[in-house]
Design brief:
single chain; 45% helix; alpha+beta
């Protein structure tokens, strides 16, 4: 399935998982990859880089935020483990 995953499908899955979790909650990039690629590492593993690229794009568009250790990251320069969340609601 990973070889046929389209960017639109990746985006829709990521946003759906975030909406399902709700405001103030996070998901991991592997959560997105596993929905599309299955539970076996050889299925979801190759999707981790496309998930990251999609997360960066969506953060730049203001549709999601990327967090590392609970803090916003610079989408052009972050490393290590990260989480995805919906942006905080404007007050």
């Amino acid at each position: 399935m990973s070889k046929t995953t389209m960017p639109e499908e990746l985006e829709a899955t990521m946003l759906a998982l975030l909406e399902e979790r709700g405001p103030g909650k996070t998901i991991g990039p592997a959560d997105v990859a596993q929905v599309l690629g299955g539970n076996q590492p050889d299925g979801w593993g190759p999707l981790m880089q496309p998930v990251r690229k999609m997360a960066v794009r969506l953060m730049k568009e203001g549709r999601i935020v990327i967090l590392r250790k609970g803090r916003l990251v610079d989408p052009d320069d972050f490393r290590g483990t990260y989480r995805l969340a919906l942006p905080p609601a404007e007050s």
